[in-house]
């Protein structure tokens, strides 16, 4: 098994006043030639947006975009006619495909919104843009990893999916747990990001916002300590 460590304090940082950002991979003003992407995972941004502020109308193309608010709520509007609010506890999917414009604004005038913004390269370009969102809690099983997003070819009619052989998994561990995550494809890798708590992977201890990428393996053993929350994104490596 090969691995790469991304400690939380090695991420890129940005302070735009209205936006405090941490970048796991090269983005905006942060460039590291060794941290362009992990396989097909291109962006994992950890953002804090000030009250009533946000990302105004802007375009995207040929990217699978996943947004997971951690605190507060975002007001979404796009050129497909979708408009609504995604709250902490929701997960949003947008396939930019052949082209879409959208805005994501803090829906609250007094509280910051905290969110993860994640981009994955699609396996097919110029598809029809699409949008979906769901509550995360009904998708989760305690003390194990639960798939909250799947590839289109593996998803049931009511499940969230992306145009890529990628699985987004969230693990909520109320007790110390040892779990083996088996990759759906041995040619894939897993990017494991600690939202809260502490985990151990291949003798590496990771704390809040630390991450590790592993590949060239069929499975990965993860020890999660009590009250840990973990995001595991499985993606093709080439």
TrEMBL record:
Fe cation binds at residues 58, 60, 102, 104. Binds 1 Fe cation per subunit. Belongs to the pirin family. Residues 13-120 form the Pirin N-terminal domain. Its cofactor is Fe cation. It comes from Pukyongia salina. Pfam families: Pirin (PF02678), Pirin_C_2 (PF17954). Residues 156-235 form the Quercetin 2,3-dioxygenase C-terminal cupin domain. The keyword Isomerase does not apply. Keywords: Iron, Metal-binding. One of its GO terms (molecular function) is metal ion binding. CDD domains: cupin_Yhhw_N. This is Pirin.
């Amino acid at each position: 098994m090969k691995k790469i460590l991304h400690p939380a304090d090695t991420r890129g940082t940005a302070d735009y006043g209205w936006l405090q950002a941490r970048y796991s991979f090269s983005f905006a003003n942060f460039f590291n030639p060794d941290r362009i992407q992990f396989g097909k995972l291109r962006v994992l941004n950890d953002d804090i947006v000030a009250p009533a502020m946000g990302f105004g109308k802007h375009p995207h193309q040929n990217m699978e975009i996943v947004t997971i608010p951690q605190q507060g709520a975002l007001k979404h509007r796009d050129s497909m006619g979708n408009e609504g609010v995604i709250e902490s506890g929701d997960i949003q999917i947008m396939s930019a495909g052949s082209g879409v414009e959208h805005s994501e604004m803090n829906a609250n005038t007094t509280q910051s919104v905290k969110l993860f913004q994640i981009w994955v390269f699609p396996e097919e370009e110029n598809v029809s843009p699409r949008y979906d969102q769901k509550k995360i809690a009904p998708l989760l099983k305690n003390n194990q990893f639960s798939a909250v997003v799947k590839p289109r070819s593996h998803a049931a009619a009511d499940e969230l999916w992306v145009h890529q052989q990628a699985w987004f998994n969230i693990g909520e561990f109320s007790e110390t747990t040892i779990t083996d995550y088996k990759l759906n494809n041995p040619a894939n890798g897993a990017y494991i990001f600690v939202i809260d708590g502490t985990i151990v992977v291949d003798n590496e201890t990771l704390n809040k916002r630390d991450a590790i990428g592993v590949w060239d393996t069929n499975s990965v053993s993860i020890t999660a300590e009590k009250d840990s929350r973990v995001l595991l994104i499985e993606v093709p490596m080439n």
